[in-house]
Write a structure and sequence with these properties.
The chain has 9 helices and no strands.
């Protein structure tokens, strides 16, 4: 378990994939030798919220209870995660595919991968738009209980294919690696997909296990 007494530099050193998470939390500069308590105090950040996020992304065996998190900072973090994937993760994936196509312009597998990714990203953007326009603002909207419930159930259903779709794409690539392909680029692409997959799963867990129960509780109050 990550605690407030742990040095943030040590936490990131043990799991470098936490660095973009730290950035989204506003704690990625002037880390120095300070521990998490000190950095949160310096940045006026909620140390309990920060520790919950870091531990969730660090361990599959850890997950908070709905009452452990407030909706407002959670929604802000989820929106920043959407932005990160739109501005960083997705362009990076397309960049690797573009480099591979430049090296092997006639390789059919690369066109299959690009087409599959295009379809997935299109659905992902529709999902993000639905969340940001119809789900996240529910806390303050005056809609009927029935209308809110329909939207929440729709969100839950949309998460069911998150794991399978990226996993299927990785399997396609691994099973059909072309002869004489640039293996470093293939590895970079697969690593980026794996990181994207894990972030999507954690993102969906926050929404399914925290956001949805808290919104449903609001509806019943």
């Amino acid at each position: 378990m990550i605690t407030g007494n742990d040095k943030l530099s040590d936490v990131i050193g043990r799991n470098i994939d936490l660095l973009p998470i730290i950035h989204r939390l506003g704690l990625s500069t002037n880390i120095g030798e300070r521990n998490i308590n000190e950095i949160c105090s310096q940045n006026a950040a909620d140390v309990n919220f920060i520790l919950i996020i870091l531990n969730t992304y660090s361990s599959d065996n850890y997950f908070p209870k709905p009452d452990d998190l407030e909706l407002s900072p959670l929604i802000d973090f989820l929106i920043k995660t959407h932005t990160y994937h739109k501005q960083v993760t997705i362009p990076r994936l397309y960049g690797f595919i573009h480099q591979l196509k430049q090296n092997m312009p006639n390789e059919k597998l690369l066109h299959v991968i690009e087409k599959y990714l295009n379809q997935y990203i299109k659905k992902l953007f529709q999902h993000i738009e639905f969340e940001e326009k119809d789900i996240f603002p529910l806390v303050n909207k005056k809609e009927s209980v029935d209308e809110r419930s329909v939207n929440i159930k729709k969100l839950f259903r949309q998460h069911t294919n998150v794991e399978n779709e990226i996993s299927d794409l990785k399997t396609i690539i691994i099973r059909h690696i072309p002869h004489n392909v640039n293996m470093d680029l293939i590895h970079d692409l697969l690593h980026a997909l794996s990181h994207f997959e894990k972030e999507q799963l954690d993102h969906a867990r926050f929404e399914d296990k925290i956001l949805i129960p808290k919104l449903l509780k609001l509806l019943s109050s």
